[in-house]
Each structure stands twice: as C-alpha cells, then as structure tokens.
Here is the input.
Amino acid sequence: MSQDCLFCKIAAREIPAKLVYEDDEVFAFEDINPQAPTHILICPKKHFASLDVATREDEAVIGKVMLAAAQLARERKLLAGGTFSGYRTVFNTGKDSGQTVFHLHLHLLGGRSFRWPPG
Ligand code: 5GP
Ligand code: ZN
Here is the structure.
C-alpha cells in the first residue's frame, strides 16, 4: 500500500467506491466519471505506478487483471448477447497517454461502439 495513492485507499476501503469484483490479488470498481455505459477499473492490490515499472514477478497478477476484465465483460454481455458486440480494455501509461492515477489499472469500457484510432 502506498500512503498517498487513491486506488490503494479504495482497496483499503478508506475511500468509498462501487466495488464490482475482489479476490486476494485484484479488485475492480466503477469509474467515477464513466466514458461508456460500462466503465470499470481493474487493479492489482499490489501498488505499482504503471505498466512501465511492472516486472516478471508481476506477470501473474497482470494476467489476473486481464482475466477479471474478460469475466466482467462476459457477465455484462459486452461481447455476446447484448446490444453492442465488443468492448475495449486500456492501460494508460504516462501522462501523455491520459494516465492520471499512478496505480496500475485496466479500463474496461463497453455498452457503446468505439472508434479507431483512439483520440
Ligand atoms: P487514468 O486517467 O489514470 O487512465 O484513469 C483514472 C481513472 O480513475 C479515470 O477514468 C477517473 O475517472 C477515475 N477516478 C479518478 N478518481 C476516482 C475516484 O475517486 N473514484 C473512482 N471510482 N474513480 C476515480
Ligand atoms: Zn496504489
């Protein structure tokens, strides 16, 4: 846990959030400023600032983050069985990518269509 980190505080229940998934290593919650009908942030409980500082030791937990996103997407029918067929998963890394919170998180966005290339 990093003392000044917003997402560590959410994991520790020091700041409220709408949690949608949790296990020993991963937690997920609704984004406070959703950019799509579904906008969930999936995080490792271990604090690291971004993908850039992840190491081989973090391989498994990053895989768990990705698989938690896939599971949430299936539960919410973001690919099959819903109105839209597709979802987007995004790691922003560094300020010019749009990263504003420096605790690694995967955005899961769905429930609308998305353009490519992204802005
Ligand atoms: P980034 O810009 O770092 O890729 O993503 C950070 C995300 O965290 C943004 O989409 C932003 O809306 C969300 N966020 C920032 N502060 C809070 C908060 O206090 N609670 C929740 N649930 N989401 C937050
Ligand atoms: Zn943190």
About this structure: The chain has one domain: 6-110. The helical segments are 6-11, 59-75. Residues 6-110 form a domain with the HIT family, subunit A fold (CATH 3.30.428.10).
